[in-house]
Amino acid sequence: MISNVDKIEDLRNKIRYHNYRYYVLDDPEISDAEYDRLLRKLESLEKSHPELITPYSPTQRVGAEPLKEFTQVTHSVPMLSLSNAMSESEMRDFDERVRKFLKTADEIEYVVEPKLDGLAIELIYENGTFILGATRGDGVIGEDVTQNLKTIKSLPLVLIPQGQLPVPHRIEVRGEIIIGTKEFEELNRKRAESGEHLFANPRNAAAGSVRQLDQRITAQRPLDIYCYGIGVVEGITFSTQWEMLQGLKSLGLRVNPYIKQCKTIDETISACLGIESIRETLPYEIDGAVIKVNSFSLQSQLGTISKSPRWAIAFKFIPHQETTVIKDIQVQVGRTGALTPVAILESVKVGGVTVSHATLHNQDEIDRKDIRTGDTVIVQRAGDVIPQVVKVITSKRTGKERKFVMPSCCPVCGSEVLRSRDEAVYRCTGLQCPAKLKESIKHFASKRAMNIDGLGDKLVDQIVEKKLVKNVSNLYYVPHHKWRELERMADKSARNIVDAIEKSKKAGLERLLFALGIRHVGEHIAKVLVDSLKTVDVIKTASKEKLIGINEIGPEVAESIIQFFRQETNWSVLEKLKAVGVSFNPKEFTEGNKFAGKTFVFTGSLKEFTRDEAEKIVESLGGKSSSSVSSKTDFVVAGEEPGSKLDKAKNLGITIINETKFKNMI
Ligand code: IVH
Rounded distance, CA 37 to CA 614, Å? Predict the structure, then answer.
């Protein structure tokens, strides 16, 4: 019989392996649900045998008591910083300096890596276990943030070597902690709602989260890690940067996929420019590319000069910031009735994109930055983050600027505006506020929700203003001739809308739950709910305890779900949706439609499919494939030797995936 010790150890190893597949290789072998099952099984076994719990079990990422202060850690090898190159010619100057120092006319081999904009940290593993994590601090002394780093799921608590490399006796690994741009937006949105100070950028958010005395707060922050360097290593040796990066990966650590080995300075420069060209498509912020001499023996010959290595340099990208003027501050009313002040800007190009609006989040944020209409301000955008006002240039004030005050009545329906005690947000109290209805319908019809093709903003505005719909279920009851009567609606477009609405009935329960716009129920939580509770009847009657019992659902989300289903009007919307034939089936039944509304473009050759086969697969899953890239493209699948479509996709900021990712999706 297998002992509990073996069972537990076997489960832990499986979980560690699947973590590695998911986070390091970006190539999972099992579904999220299956992974959750393994984790739950381990949790329940450990619950019955608490004496077998070790601090390195995958279940032990969170749980320690808050600290009073951080202890100091002296790095055995100082953590250096980088000097900068601002242009192509400065990169060439760097290469010249390197060759001059080494007294060689030969080409130098370099490794190019994205320069991640986060917080530098060091991780120490002894005999394969994570024993200490520290911030860079001043480069010599940092802070012990081990218990916070343990909460990061992409950081292995135990190394699991996948290749030939043995587990080293000791390895000090250096890397960057980051927060993705989308996750950063979401974090700030929540903070704006609860009146907390906003983080200025993802880097500050990452740093603030790592330097938290209470580990439970860190655990709620979407932190991620990429490793790019080493300090002292005992037990294995590496002779180049490239070999080391591959080695870290094979030990189970996360290494950025956009690293490149280059034989010449020309290749190095194009690799840097290549990284700059995909900057906008990355899900996290980078502020440059790092060039490192590949050979470790050349690195040590080159040495360091005043805290920066002579063997590396950062090629800094132009920051996406510009100066402009706030023409007006207007108030938008969202789906939940929240009033959001928005700065209307004199249009300005920021990083190649024209920006004419910037969110100001809430009154507190405006007061804190003292933003006034007429002010000259610095705006920034990064990745696909909504443009923000960084700061006011007060020296440009003329005295004519006007302070902003939140209106006391809703600018759309005139109802009273209230701010509840524990929120920073002002909300419209109007039950029939057309702005709320318009926004909920737009959300309901959106691509990732019910995906009703063609039901754009202008149409939604009209059907609400003409009182054709009072809630989302009414959409399914509007007959063809009523659509036909709307402005600029030809017979064919009216027919298309009716067809698209009909098609959306098959979107499935996950999308439907997300589409209903329940506060805090995004796509992911909708999936979690359906995975664990399966039917809408169970979901709508679930108790708070039951909801909180589900992994990833906290009290705030649970409360919001209960509040939604407590309202009879919401039940009646669901009844009407059901009556008209909208599917309440969980995702499994609608799998055949999972690419519905998605357009794919293939470029380059795939290893496992012919172009025809790949396109057929997309179609069989409800998607479309197209031969050219446009703003309507959702995914570009890049095979080997991709053509100009790839460049176009990069310019348009379209999601680019490789064959493995495509295979996972199908
Ligand atoms: S190497 C040579 N590689 O940039 C030692 N740093 O200015 C310097 N950074 O403190 C570190 N991505 O926070 C290196 N791929 C990368 C990096 C990187 C981001 C940050 C790191 C460091 C700062 C140096």
Answer: 32
Q: What is the mean pLDDT of residues 109-121?
A: 97
Name 130's bridge partners. 125
**Residue 591: beta bridge partners?**
none
What spacing in Å lies between the alpha carbon of 48 and ligand 1's midpoint?
A: 45
Q: Is 189 exposed, middle or buried (0-12, 13-18, 19+ CB in 10 A)?
A: middle
Strand order in the sheet with 129-135: 129-135, 119-126, 170-179, 223-234
Buried/exposed 85-110: b ≥16 CB within 10 Å, e otherwise: beeeeebeebbeebeeebeeeeebbb
Query: What's the pLDDT at 588?
Result: 43
Please name the residue whose Cα sits nearest to atom 13 of ligand 1.
Answer: 120
- Between the CA of 81 and the centroid of ligand 1 the distance, in Å, is 6
Between the two ends of the chain, the Cα-to-Cα distance in Å is 39
Which mutation among 117, 119, 176 tests ligand 1's pocket best, with the greatest number of atoms within 8 A of CB? 176
Beta bridge partners of 560: none
Q: Does residue 403 have an active-site annotation?
A: no
Mutate to test the pocket of ligand 1, among 77, 79, 82, 138 (most ligand atoms within 8 A of CB): 82
For residues 666 and 662, give the distance between their C-alpha atoms in angstroms, rounded to a whole number: 6
Q: Can you tell me which atom of ligand 1 is nearest the CA of 118?
A: 13
Structure tokens at 389: 């006002």
The structure tokens listed for 471 are: 């809630």
Ligand 1 contact via 312 beta carbon (within 6 Å): yes
The answer to whether the CB of 496 is under 6 A from ligand 1 is no
Q: Which residue of the set 115, 292, 436, 527 is catalytic?
A: 115
The CA-based dihedral angle spanning residues 147, 153, 155, 158, taken in that order and rounded to the nearest 10 degrees: 80
Cβ of residue 115 lying under 6 Å from some atom of ligand 1 = yes
Token pair 């609405």 is at which residue? 501
| Pair of tokens at residue 579 | 């009556």
pLDDT digits (tens, 9 = 90+) for 492-524: 999 999 999 999 999 999 999 999 989 888 888
- State pLDDT tens for residues 287-344: 999 999 999 999 999 999 878 999 999 999 987 789 999 999 999 998 888 999 999 9
Q: Give the distance (Å) from ligand 1 centre to CA of residue 650.
A: 25
Q: Is the CB of 116 under 6 A from ligand 1?
A: yes
Name residue 158's beta-bridge partners. 129
518-527 residue pLDDT tens: 988 888 889 8
Q: Separation of 82 CA from ligand 1 center, angstroms?
A: 7
Q: What is the DSSP secondary-structure string of 143-198?
A: EB-HHHHTT-TTS-SB----SSPPPPSEEEEEEEEEE-HHHHHHHHHHHHHTTPPP
Residue 318 to residue 211: CA distance in whole angstroms: 29
Pull the structure tokens for residue 559. 């409360």
CA 79 to centroid of ligand 1, rounded, Å: 9
318 C-alpha to ligand 1 centroid (Å): 17
- Cβ(290) to ligand 1 under 6 A? yes
For residue 304 and ligand 1, the question of a CB distance below 6 A is answered with no
210 neighbors 443 (Cβ within 8 angstroms): no
- 82: Cβ below 6 Å to ligand 1? yes
User: In 3D, which of 211, 149, 224 has the Cα closest to residue 179?
Assistant: 224
Decide whether any atom of ligand 1 lies within 6 Å of the 175 Cβ: no
Once rounded to an integer, what is the mean pLDDT over residues 263-286? Answer: 93
The closest alpha carbon to 229, from 159, 158, 175, 298, belongs to 175
Whole-number CA gyration radius for the chain: 27
